[in-house]
Design a protein that fits this description.
globular, mainly beta, 191 residues, 4-stranded antiparallel beta sheet
C-alpha cells in the first residue's frame, strides 16, 4: 500500500524526502538547490503517486526565506520627541510568481503552470492533480490559502509507485539554475 510521500515527515529526517512503505520502512533523498532567490522558495511538499483511488497529486508550498529572518520591533516617537510605545514591525513578504513554471518526473512528463495563475502568497499551497480534468476546473483563488490545478487531458497516472521523482523548475528551461525543488522516492526491495 503506497502512502503519501512528504518532505520532513520524520523529525530525524526533517527537510528530506521520506517514503514510508506499508511495512514502515523509510527511505530518504532530497535535493534543494542553493541558487534560489529569497522570495522564490516554492517547494514540493508532498506527492501521492499511484493511489489506490483518486488521482495522483503533488502539493507545493511557498516557504519564502524572507519569513525566516528576524525583524526587530520598531519604537515610535511621540510628537514631543519622547519615546513612544513599541509598534509591531510590519513584514511584507512578496508572493512568488509561478506562471510558466514546470513540474514533472525529470524525464518525459511535464506540466506547465498556466499563465492565469496569480502569484503564490507566502504560506499558501498549490495542489496539482494529475487527473486530466483540464484547466477549466482550476481554482486560482488564494482566499483559503490554496490553489488547485488540474492537468490537461491525457496527463494522468504519470508516477510510479515503487520509484520516482518530481522536479519543479522556474520556467520553461529545465536547467540546474532554474530548478527550485525535487522530491524522490524508492521502495526498498522486499517491501
Amino acid at each position: 500500500m503506497m502512502r503519501c510521500i512528504q518532505r520532513g515527515a520524520i523529525p530525524a529526517l526533517a527537510g528530506a524526502l521520506v517514503l514510508i512503505t506499508a511495512a514502515g520502512t523509510a527511505v530518504a533523498q532530497d535535493a534543494q538547490p542553493n541558487n534560489i532567490a529569497a522570495n522564490e522558495r516554492v517547494t514540493i511538499h508532498s506527492v501521492l503517486p499511484n493511489p489506490e483511488s483518486g488521482p495522483e497529486w503533488v502539493e507545493l508550498i511557498n516557504e519564502s526565506e524572507l519569513a525566516r529572518r528576524i525583524f526587530l520591533p520598531m519604537v515610535t516617537v511621540a510628537n514631543d520627541g519622547s519615546a513612544g510605545t513599541p509598534a509591531p514591525a510590519q513584514m511584507v513578504i512578496p508572493a512568488t510568481a509561478m506562471s510558466g513554471w514546470q513540474l514533472g518526473d525529470g524525464v518525459s512528463i511535464w506540466y506547465e503552470v498556466p499563465a492565469e495563475m496569480p502569484p503564490v502568497p507566502y504560506g499558501a499551497r498549490v495542489i496539482v492533480y494529475f487527473d486530466g480534468a483540464g484547466p477549466a476546473t482550476n481554482d486560482y483563488d488564494f482566499s483559503d490559502n490554496l490553489a488547485v490545478l488540474h492537468t490537461p487531458p491525457g496527463l494522468v497516472n504519470v508516477f510510479h509507485d515503487t520509484e520516482g521523482k518530481v522536479i519543479l523548475y522556474a520556467g520553461v528551461e529545465r536547467t540546474h539554475e532554474q530548478m527550485r525543488s525535487t522530491l524522490s522516492w524508492k521502495v526498498l526491495s522486499g517491501e
